[in-house]
Amino acid sequence: MNNIRATLAIVWRIAIPYFRSEDRWAGRGLLAAVIAMELALVAINVLVSQWQNRFFTAIQEYDLARFVTEIWIFLGLASVFIALAVYKLYLNQWLQIRWRQWLTRHYLGEWLDEATHYRMQLTGDAADNPDQRITEDVKNFVEQTLVIGLGLLSSIVTLASFVVILWGLSNKAPLHLYGTDIVIPGFLFWCALLYAVLGTALTHWIGAPLINLNFEQQRFEADFRFNLVRVRENSEQIALLKGEGAERSRLLDRFGFVIGNWYAIMGRTKRLTAFTASYSQAAVIFPYVVVAPAYFAKSIQLGDMMQTGSAFGSVQDALSFFVTAYRSIAEWRAIVARLDGFEMSVDSAVNLPAHQATIELKAAGGSRNIGLEKLCVYLPNGKPLVAADGFAIQTSERVLVTGPSGSGKSTLFRAIAGIWPFGTGTIVVPAQAKLMMLPQRPYFPVGALGDAVIYPAAPGAFQASQIRDAVISVGLPDLADRLGEDGHWNRMLSLGEQQRLGLARALLHAPDYLFLDEATASLDEPSEARLYRLLAEKLPQATIVSIGHRSTLDAFHTRKVAMMKDGAIHVLGKDSTPVEPEPSAAR
């Protein structure tokens, strides 16, 4: 029971924001229309139950006129039923797509807000494969919530409607045993209730493991698909290393989890289906067996018997909702658990500063320098990495950052960019300053080359002639004629070409501070020198901070910073005073 309450609480938390959103009136209107049609369909079923009594009584009494009249009545009821069923489905699907659209935008907004997607990975969140959760899980949540919710509502209303009918028929058809009528008020209803309760209890006992099995199946499927995507994205490296055999083995191992869990689902589903199928088939004949003694004792007519069977079936179906929908409910609960995990992971990443000390990014209106004040940068496990106090990157200067691997050079860049939360202290950034970080492997979205170069600016933010000139200036004249061509540029271009396009992006955006994290490491030294001279020519006012290891880079920078493994920052060049970590910073 506690699990059910917890699941319903999660469903409410996920579902209710849509019906309070800017699209609430459309959503509420569609939901109200679908509910109204569902109730109307139940009313039609009640009328059909009453029609059955009259129709079969007319047959028993050989009343042709009543028979024909009832045929016309049935055609009218059937026409209304068909129209309601068609438009209920249509409006249901309309509600599904609007709800899914809002929920997808909501999750995308939270996931991509202020580097939350990046922090979720740093914190080791439990939300594996967020792509699947935002696509398949959102779609299935909306669809299954409406199906199960409307099904439950229909069952409750059907039960309330047909209990009255079944109770009245119990008075007409008392329990007849050995020639004696035994009057039990509503005994047909109690028979249906007992039958349904036993069926529901046995179904839950047999099918309960399906909830966890379906959750695991979703996880294994997503993990297998994610690793397939990784192979596709890294196909060149795999081919160069002749790693196809290793990848095949790794993928088959992951697929083995999919298969093993599926076999477990098959076995459990087989047992559940065997029971529910037997239960459903027995439900067809059970009411007639119960009421047959009264009919053969001529206490009731054929119409009463047929209506009893119909009403009993409706009540039994309503009471057996969880029996027939158990597998769908098990899958739905797994989906709800996955979305709940995703939301918790997003909240954990968003609220990370509230749970621990973090680096403060401060906008300074009067300063034009980037300053590090009592800064200590940690790894996610709490190990200190970089420590500095009183260190500044001055406007329009060129700074070269060097140091051994693992000394925290790239992590310091991430902290300055505001996406690395682990640490203490303050990073002061001039107000309104434009910062751009260029990593060793720049990112280009799939699409037109021109749009990929100006990313993250919107298409059309720069004139085609500007983009063309920037691409030519970085030494890629052949690509200047392909700006309108669509492609997966991270796969189609060499790393050197990608780095050149990254610098073209910087020329277009003209940042105040440009951070180059080995952004020219794949170029030869003469090409690298030409591009640094180009940056000095095109961005004379920009502050450029480079991470690099080549001695040839010294000529293009006015100051050199050496980062040590112990967290110290040694400043050489114009300022040769070493900046050592404070004793408390390494704790």
UniProtKB/TrEMBL annotation:
**Where found?**
Cell membrane
GO molecular function per UniProt = ABC-type transporter activity; ATP binding; ATP hydrolysis activity
SUPFAM superfamilies xrefs: ABC transporter transmembrane region, P-loop containing nucleoside triphosphate hydrolases
Superkingdom of this entry's organism?
A: Bacteria
Keyword annotations from UniProtKB, A to Z: ATP-binding, Membrane, Nucleotide-binding, Transmembrane, Transmembrane helix, Transport
- Tell me the protein family, please: Belongs to the ABC transporter superfamily.
Provide the function of this protein: Involved in beta-(1-->2)glucan export. Transmembrane domains (TMD) form a pore in the inner membrane and the ATP-binding domain (NBD) is responsible for energy generation.
Q: Which residue ranges does the record assign to the ABC transmembrane type-1 domain?
A: 29-331
GO terms for cellular component: plasma membrane
According to Swiss-Prot or TrEMBL, what is its membrane topology?
Multi-pass membrane protein
> Chief localization class?
membrane
TM annotation in the entry = 30-51, 71-91, 146-167, 187-211, 272-296
Entry coiled-coil feature ranges: none
Annotated protein name in UniProt: ABC transporter ATP-binding protein/permease
| Residue span(s) of domain ABC transporter | 370-586
